[in-house]
Amino acid sequence: MLKYKYVGILLLGLLAFLNFGCPPSPTTVTVPDVQGMTETGAALVLGAVPLQLGAVTTEASLTVDVGLVIRHTPAAGTSVEQNTAVDLVVSSGVEVPNLFEQTQDAAEAALTAAHLQLGDVTTEASETIEAGHVISQTPTGGTHVNADTAVDLVISTGPGPVADEPTVGWSYIPTPNSIWGLNIENASDGGYLVSGGDTGYHMYGLKLSASGAKSWELFPSRIVGTAEYWRCTAKGLVEADDGGFVFLGRGQLPDDEIPTDTCYVLVKYDSGRNQVWEKAYSPYRPGTTVYCGPNNPAILEPTGDGGYAAFGVSYIGPYQSTILKTDSLGELGTSGFVTVIDTDNNGDYPEEIEDGQQTSDGGYVLAGNAQDDGQYYALIIKTDGDGGWQWSQLYQYTEANHGALAHAVTQTANGSYLVAGDLINNITKALMYGTWLAKLNSEGEVEWSNWEPDVQKVEDPRVIKETPDGGFIVGGKSHAGYMMLSKFSAAGVLLWNFEMEEFGAKRIQDLVLNEDGSCVVVGSGGTSGPTAVVRIDYVFVPQD
User: Fold this and answer.
1) What is the CATH number of the domain that holds 68?
2) Residue 72, beta-bridge partner list
3) Sheet containing 432-440: order of strands
């Protein structure tokens, strides 16, 4: 009996071994195709099979973007056991060569050999890098990028000049000759916003870095079917408090209640250049609920409350001066308005506005010209913060019996105003007699007026700015037709001229000042390209 007991135990042990002691048969799976995925994406797909991520190596590639899988082992479609390791080969793209201190020609050749493109080329003075050689590059040497990536260069112009001698710091010229720039504003990151248009009458925006490298370009348009609703040049581009930016143009919006197709138009974009909103505005004809039209906006300025102010003219019989004021969302709300300025003109003569800004008292000042009884006058208008008329003045140069045009105005630190314009034939407007400068007190009365036809200085001025050292600068063109900047003392005495023949025939349209004593100008032909954006160093003495 004992013998049979032992036999039973052996049989039970054998069965246990057969059922539990032997490993289960492996399960076969198919390797998925993870080519073109990132390493992270490939690992997730493999893990779901389930397979393991094996060794990951990199390899240069002209066809597969950086960080994506070129191939893997085992290959897609192979049958393997579960949890088999799959090795990946990931693209490292191409390596950017180090171009530091190479000539521009040598740098371009090196980029071509590396299957890369030459991007934007800007210039900058350097005390240590020889003229014509690379100071810096973006992306930097050793960076891995996709084939055909553009590499931007900063090229040395050699040592800078001695202090107080104006010189070009850097320049940027947009590639298409059809682009022209009209306005420039400082950006909060130290860069610049340039606006204008092209020969197709589209708005144009350009963002440059503090060193003059292009950050982006934008051509806003609004097309519905075959109709283009913003067929206009951008009259301004300003930064919004949230990091976005706002364009000023002229046109209308689809299905808008305003019947005119030439409204003031504001278009808001976020920092990623995605359109956020678009709005159209037109004032009523005085004393009615009939919209004005056409409207001709001239310039856009940010206001102290985070909103926007635009200045121009609207047709009510003759053209009359108008102001648009909105909040940061483009709404009129309780503090905004769009209105024809109720001056003492009473619609008796046409007006044209070319410049404007918010003043230190919260009001606004506008500059332009008017025609009355066949004579031409420079026009300055001052309003309160609600667009209500406070005073306006007409100016001529009666000593020489010349008419006048005002192209630019700026308020000074002491509350007076500087005006830049031209003296013209009082009847035909065809003959120009030279630049006219004036300083006005806070009520618009002339403190001094400057017209020196025999003194070589800027002509056809389009912008005037007070400098922190007490003087002021005026931008326009030289007698030969090149961009020119002239510096004056506080009393209007010419200190120097700086002509920029190397950029061809064009006129300074606008400029901004920098705290380091430099300025950046935008120049063009006005309604034709090419545009040049130029930093000029040693314009004024920085103030502590």
Assistant:
1) 3.30.10.20
2) 88
3) 403-411, 417-424, 432-440, 446-450
